[in-house]
Prior knowledge:
The structure is a homodimer.
Chain A lengths: L1 E5 L2 E2 L9 E2 L2 E5 L2 E6 L10 E4 L4 E4 L1 E6 L15 H13 L4 H17 L2 E6 L4 H11 L2 E5 L8 H13 L6 E9 L5 H14 L3 E5 L3 H11 L3 H7 L7 E5 L5 H9 L2 E5 L1 H6 L7 H6 L4 E3 L4 H4 L4 H16 L7 H15 L16 E4 L12 H8 L5 E6 L2 E5 L2 E2 L5 H17 L2
Parallel strand pairs in A: 1-6, 2-7, 8-9, 9-10, 10-11, 11-12, 12-13, 13-14, 14-15
Antiparallel strand pairs in A: 1-4, 2-3, 4-5, 7-16, 16-17, 17-18, 18-19
Amino acid sequence: xxxxxxxxxxxxxxxxxxxxxxxxxxxxxxxxxxxxxxxxxxxxxxxxxxxxxxxxxxxxxxxxxxxxxxxxxxxxxxxxxxxxxxxxxxxxxxxxxxxxxxxxxxxxxxxxxxxxxxxxxxxxxxxxxxxxxxxxxxxxxxxxxxxxxxxxxxxxxxxxxxxxxxxxxxxxxxxxxxxxxxxxxxxxxxxxxxxxxxxxxxxxxxxxxxxxxxxxxxxxxxxxxxxxxxxxxxxxxxxxxxxxxxxxxxxxxxxxxxxxxxxxxxxxxxxxxxxxxxxxxxxxxxxxxxxxxxxxxxxxxxxxxxxxxxxxxxxxxxxxxxxxxxxxxxxxxxxxxxxxxxxxxxxxxxxxxxxxxxxxxxxxxxxxxxxxxxxxxxxxxxxxxxxxxxxxxxxxxxxxxxxxxxxxxxxxxxxxxxxxxxxxxxx
Amino acid sequence: xxxxxxxxxxxxxxxxxxxxxxxxxxxxxxxxxxxxxxxxxxxxxxxxxxxxxxxxxxxxxxxxxxxxxxxxxxxxxxxxxxxxxxxxxxxxxxxxxxxxxxxxxxxxxxxxxxxxxxxxxxxxxxxxxxxxxxxxxxxxxxxxxxxxxxxxxxxxxxxxxxxxxxxxxxxxxxxxxxxxxxxxxxxxxxxxxxxxxxxxxxxxxxxxxxxxxxxxxxxxxxxxxxxxxxxxxxxxxxxxxxxxxxxxxxxxxxxxxxxxxxxxxxxxxxxxxxxxxxxxxxxxxxxxxxxxxxxxxxxxxxxxxxxxxxxxxxxxxxxxxxxxxxxxxxxxxxxxxxxxxxxxxxxxxxxxxxxxxxxxxxxxxxxxxxxxxxxxxxxxxxxxxxxxxxxxxxxxxxxxxxxxxxxxxxxxxxxxxxxxxxxxxxx
Lengths: 427, 427
């Protein structure tokens, strides 16, 4: 489809994060073909969309989630991280079958679309089911391996999926990774490092999410999780860590030196009482930071507006400095910085030749008025209600509250509720 | 209008906070006339609404706001409380005229409706303008005086408005109050206490919002703000305090003994880096707590879903206890507890004879699925997107994203933007 967006504001997220008036955005198939003033041409459009003064910008990047966990929303609340994993999450997850996870992923993707999220770095079981759900809907997913335990064969599986998924489809890519230091044997981690080295591949993992995790690692290895992982070569080709709530100054140095990115998940970290990451300090220290929703069991929503607000508001309160964590930087984290960390530089901004992953923000809502500072409004008062349109790879998948994904959302809700009941009754 | 809601779930918020299946809610004029199973009767309805399984519940109560501050949204961000007030808020507020505040209030009310907020305890200049805006739209407002300074005549004005507003209209009531200890002379506060005593009227004020405010009060008076206000008789007839971020153990005792309520405003307190109130401790100590959005300049949204999530998530993280701040209690805070604190016991729950202030929550949205625990979903994953309908005093004012208030929202946006530009250009 060739689509013309006109009569709106454009925030392209290029070098400067600013709003430009009077420009149009043209889409040809799955890419942006033109951005600029109206330019009479022989180009014909299948659809011309009057933005009516609304804002068009790159889609939000969710740099850490477990999309298949939808079924656990409000199932296992009000427990600390380790108890929550061992007593609620792991037992029910042990019963999961591939076809279950397919539907859970579909539900997660629906929720992403309502929140302006156009791509996710997803870590969960049965990666083929996330690939299938993404392709069936038209969603962009970066699959990151979440292997753990001590079976070295799983590293071969990680490598196989890495090779199989990358290049398989426009919408799909893969990164190497594993669940966490505290769920993986030393041998497994070393084997992952060796494999990553062969491909010069960056590696992604959970790291320093809770105090207990850090304490236990120090007790076991004499090192913080960051130091321990670094000692095993995990960071030798770059990569990123999810959460990073409890980092030492030495950890900060390792992140900077090895150019390791942080994916902060403030809602999840609060809800599990894990703590508040020092995001302001990270950014000032030169560490790249992206935002993630984490999974439903710990958040319990996939709402990038919630994460944006928390990212700035929590930094202000923990640093005792109301000017901490510039909201404009937060917007960059969920667009171009997130895209960079996820390996999605083809859709990090709006420019000719870039993949057409974009959203339209409804400014004709009371929470966006008056238009004192639209970009600050997005971070400080925006909500999912402002997502008027979500386009991925040139296709409009969500518009004015309706999904255009070829599957009836009610069918997805029905299946997810049915499977969830089945799983609980078989515990 | 006589309206029948059927085929939905009911959370009446009576003694138990629970969801009942198979009941209907009938509205006659401005009151609830019946709740129960379908009951063939000769009663005729003007409209019958199929809830399609969605949830009907009491509207949210916003127990602290300055609705007229809409014009300051994203105007004065990233500054600490006292600087923010003195250098940004107070100078522009000094230019305000009555007709400006009327439009700013209308914008605030629009935003309340989108968030399921059916009443507000509002403290701002030109109270008649909030009364007029509320009556023009059909919104329910509790006006609380925000006088300050040292002019004792203003106390007479407070008394006059208290008498004039109470009983003037179904939708309007008034409470006594003043801005804060740090903006009011001792004589003024004593005069307010005397006036309140004459009417046995409860008094409401800002209290212990920032560390600096508490420190300066101790320096000036030798007492915390709570002790100081108590010593001047402010709490002798009950009342409530907004924020209460920095309370001492002795303050806690005063709140309990004098049955003073707290209105916590977590989003505002984070954004201004004021701190995080000890809400879990307050509730366990037997202090009644309601939620408030505060004004746009410090929040910057009027979004009760944001406040709910923050209220529980922040308590979990500051107490290092993931089970802290039961989400069900948070739901009670924004319905029946808030109503009680605001003097709105006529619309605190859904029951025959109660005023028809209610909302319909859209459960057919991905963020509410699966239906593991609908009430927890509301707090942990709900968003403004789930507000399908907002009814106040028996009138549907907002439904499926459209306002039904007799005024075009675009006209309100235009006026607010115009006035805002005028004010800034005259600074």
